């Protein structure tokens, strides 16, 4: 529910992944800071999938 509210009130594009929270957030943030493409970020997050 909190994620739904965040999507409604934000004007930014959001991507949701079923990955380990801390590891996924850290990896995604570091890669975004390094201007890595979304495809490469998704490839890095794939092994962290929990579902």
Q: How many helical elements? A: 3
Question: Uncertain spans, ≥5 residues at pLDDT below 50?
Answer: none
Mean pLDDT over all positions: 94
Gyration radius, rounded:
12 Å
**Helix-residue proportion:** 55-70%
Distance between the termini: 19 Å
What is the number of domains?
Answer: 1
Q: What's the total count of β strands? A: 0
Structural class: mainly alpha
Spell out the helices and strands N to C.
HHH
Tell me the major beta sheet.
none
* Coarse morphology: globular
Strand-residue fraction? under 5%
Description of the structure:
This is PTS-dependent dihydroxyacetone kinase, phosphotransferase subunit dhaM. GO terms for molecular function: kinase activity. Keywords: Kinase, Transferase. The chain has helices spanning about 1-10, 20-35, 40-45. By secondary structure, the protein is mostly helical. The protein has one domain. Helix 2 (about 20-35) packs antiparallel against helix 3 (about 40-45).
């Amino acid at each position: 529910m909190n994620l739904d509210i965040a999507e409604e009130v934000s004007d930014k594009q959001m991507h949701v992944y079923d990955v380990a929270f801390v590891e996924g957030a850290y990896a995604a943030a570091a890669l975004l800071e390094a201007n890595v493409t979304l495809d490469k970020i998704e490839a890095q997050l794939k092994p962290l999938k929990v579902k």
